[in-house]
Amino acid sequence: MVVAIRLFNSHFCVYTVYFILQKTFLAFLFILVTCVTISDAFCLFEPLTAGKPGCIDSKGTLHQFGSHWRAENCLDCSCGKDGTSCCSSYATPVDFDEEKCESIFDKQTCSYKVVEKADHKKECPVFTWVG
């Protein structure tokens, strides 16, 4: 009887450890997939031009070290001692009814609006944004 109890306990422990490892792996996988999906934004880096007192943007404008600005292509930029860093400033709609709706990018506000194809005054629900 003592042997039977020990055998039952050892099998119970093996199944418990297996169950915990399985759930931990699934949680890790879920977090990884979520992070990859959410981190769809992009950034660019332009090294500093030697001998310049700041950073020069695509239009040729000089920006002082430590300054921040929004570029014409809706990138948020900053000037550091190493160069210019620019990252996308907008989220992109990816989960909406594409048969009934369309996304329209507004360069003035640097944002997307999702509206019905037949009537642009009616907005559509968006379930997922990335960026």
Automatic annotation (TrEMBL):
Gene name of the encoded protein: LOC112956941
Family, similarity comment: Belongs to the beta-microseminoprotein family.
Primary location recorded for the protein, binned into one broad class: secreted
Name of this protein: Beta-microseminoprotein-like
GO cellular component, one term: extracellular region
Segments passing through the bilayer: 12-33
Alphabetical list of Pfam families matching this protein: PSP94
Localisation per UniProt entry: Secreted
InterPro entries: PSP94 (IPR008735)
Keywords, alphabetical: Disulfide bond, Membrane, Secreted, Transmembrane, Transmembrane helix
Organism: Nothoprocta perdicaria (Chilean tinamou)
